[in-house]
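Exercise: predict the fold of this chain.
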Amino acid sequence: MSYYLNLSFLSNELNNLQKAEHKKRLSAEARCMLSQFEGRPVLADDIARETGGRPFFPDSDTDFSISHSGSLAAVSLVKGKNLRTGCDVELVRPRSRAREIAEEFFSAPERDYIESQGRFDEARFYGIWTLKECFLKLRGLPVFDMAGAPSFICSCGGQFAFGAAVSSPLSFNLYELSGNAGGRYMLAAAFEGTENEPVEIRWFSQESLACKSIANIKAAINPAETVSPKI
């Protein structure tokens, strides 16, 4: 069993599309990646929704999460009973309310991490945002619950960490993606249910972006086994 993070970069095809069509194409590409994993065509009607809006396949042990931003579509996948996943990707770009969002939804250690180099670091802001968002998507919670998401920076020693106890093992992977013409993205994926499983990243587009691992956070039931990598 493995956890998968499927990616597709469609910049050349999306540059001249209207916003609605742009989003439609990315959603279709995400379903295409699901189809290849499932070995059958996956249509929009094949995907059901939990009460909170979280997508799932009825009568299937495949759990998945979809995200897209800019020209990048991402799908995290895991197959197995009682396993869950969530992913989020964000194009790093100026956001007028970024400081306000950080003040309202991020912990003090997270805000210190974002501004630790003497300026507001947009990539670090989106890194924390995607970690929180992938956790909410794993749990099936809306973005409006962002304030209730645990902190991902420890106040002791300046480490990435999942600031909450867990009843089932959790792992988080944070990546930075970049390319000459593709912009810069922050990508986070969360997996729940099995400890120490590797994540396999698979590209489904002709063009791929350079992928740099920023952090791998493991939250174990036994706190002594929890991994909190240094910044």
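Check your answer against the key: The CA atoms of residues 96 and 171 lie 31 Å apart.
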